[in-house]
Predict the structure.
Amino acid sequence: MTDNKQAIPGVLKALDENTEAALARLVEILKIPSISTDPAHNDDCARAADWCAATLADIGFEASVRSTNGQPMVVGHYRAEGEGVIPHVLFYGHYDVQPADPLEEWDSPPFEPRMADDGTNGKIIVGRGTSDDKGQFMTFLEACQAWKSVHGALPVSVTVLLEGEEESGSPSLGPFLDANAEELKADLALVCDTGQWDAASPAITTMLRGLAHAEIIITGPSRDLHSGMYGGPAQNAIRVLTSILGDLQDAEGRVKIPGFYDGIIAPTPEQLAQWVALGVDDKTYLAAIGLERMAGEQDHSLLEQLWSRPTAEINGIIGGYTGPGSKTVIPSKASSKLTFRLVPGQEPDKIINGFKKFVSDRLPADCSVEYLESGGSLAVGFDVTAPAFRCTAEALEEEWGKAPVLMGCGGSIPIVESFQTKLGMDSLLVGFALDDDRIHAPNEKYNLISFHKGARSWARILEKLASL
Ligand code: BES
Ligand code: MN
Ligand code: MN
């Protein structure tokens, strides 16, 4: 392809004329309940992987489904031909989705995608995975499909990697990247699994928080006890667990684990100034989730708390009697799952070890603690002055009529760190999700305009990357 500038109008026109077919393809993949964390859905994950490979093959990729110890990977290759050095990108997305529960809070079945008209967003599609990440990775495949159908070729060489375990922490990905490094290496990774700034403003995500997860089981008495026969003298496992967990933060919202903040690399003054200029209002942000008061570190702004400060969160507590009526029991055991969001300079292992010491130091006499499997991923950040960032910003500006916001991200995408450490590639994170998409929650949705303009954006980004 010699003149990509001339090539783009035709591709955009094809995308505009084929929205129905694109939507039909999205509906097909959304109907497959590919919940990676639940072994009962292993067959569905395999079916989703097969669907992705078949769709890539239809576009013209050499596609394969590759087995792992967990859910399969899908890999597709397209080698562009032409004069000179043609850039090669690796596109990453995930076909697995979060569990749909609580089911009763959905207005329609999570795996029967439904179109609706939403007062603020126009046409939307509702269903598990619409925004995270099926609707998003399909924006890229639709862009490839349009390029291929209009020009018979893609403007750059593309490898697509779709995994099925992102929502369970990507356990098979490290070994898969190690084993297939030569095959997967490219100049740059493209990831479509993040958000826009708002419905009218595109964004490039320049940093992601890391994650460490832990699970503990506290045991007190050797068996559950009658609270009349033993209440008073006997220790209570839930009381021990909650008092330790209740001690994790101080009154100012600071995490009390010794060493938790050691080595943290703070954002630069320029970054902080840029975040201030984004003009985010605490009250508006909190009001959208039914809250009024900031509950994090009191001496840090909202965006710092979200993007550049670490957290300790209790995700779940299990223990004792929770059935109907009351039961006078003193529980023998109580357990909890926790996650820590990490920022540059923190390491998952050190954080987990600090947490273990924090718990062990507070364990009263006669109690024991068991630490279950733990793990995590590092935070990542990118150099936004790199040429690929600049030309992506141009492409987004052409599509959206305004420059993309450079934003941080409080969430984690574990693979992005592995791309850096194992394949030596930076990632370009461009996504089209919105804060009100309800990812991981009931009635997850994706705006059809996001789906359409997302595909148009990728079509333009590929064109720009080709001329790098
Ligand atoms: N797409 C999300 C990451 C994300 C969240 C991006 C919010 C932008 C805004 C991803 O699928 C996700 O849910 N990641 C998990 C990782 C975990 C399961 C290892 C997360 O952040 O909790
Ligand atoms: Mn995702
Ligand atoms: Mn997710």
Remarks:
- The chain has two domains: 4-208+379-465, 210-264+310-377.
